[in-house]
Write a structure and sequence with these properties.
By secondary structure, the protein is of the alpha+beta class. It is built from two helices and nine strands, in the order E-E-E-H-E-E-E-E-E-H-E.
Length: about 140
């Protein structure tokens, strides 16, 4: 089973104007066994699924669906998986297979379990053993 660790760093940033005070922000980075690392957009299902899928050869691609319209999909060879955002939910669809889930979970274990479910069922990848790195 491939393994990955997620680290986070919290720091204060200035709000950008005289009226704005300091704001606390946090960044997350996923570290893989091959010593490669990627910064996550967020600590949620879409960011983890996309980052791990891209590590395994899937590519984000824009497919035209109308005049001046396009759909962002994940593609590998002839296989296409379409993520669709619905408020706090996300749907992943590959052909007639479909998984709908929350984007964020209160429990890290639930989050990692859902990510692995999507990776295994739709992307046909091995499940990842994902841990939170302690610094």
């Amino acid at each position: 089973m491939p393994r990955a660790a997620i680290s986070s760093k919290a720091f204060l940033i200035e709000g950008g104007c005289n009226a704005c005070g300091l704001q606390n922000t946090e960044t997350f980075t996923i570290h893989f066994e091959d010593r490669r690392s990627e910064v996550l957009d967020n600590f949620d299902v879409p960011s983890l699924v996309q980052t791990i899928a891209q590590k395994n050869g899937w590519r984000e691609t824009a497919i035209p669906i109308g005049i001046s319209e396009e759909e962002i999909v994940l593609k590998k060879g002839n296989e296409v998986i379409k993520p669709k955002y619905l408020g706090d939910q996300i749907i992943y669809q590959a052909g007639d297979q479909r998984i709908q889930t929350k984007q964020r979970f209160d429990s890290n274990e639930e989050l990692f379990e859902q990510v692995n479910s999507i990776l295994v069922e739709l992307f046909k990848l091995e499940p990842y053993e994902i841990k939170i790195a302690v610094e």
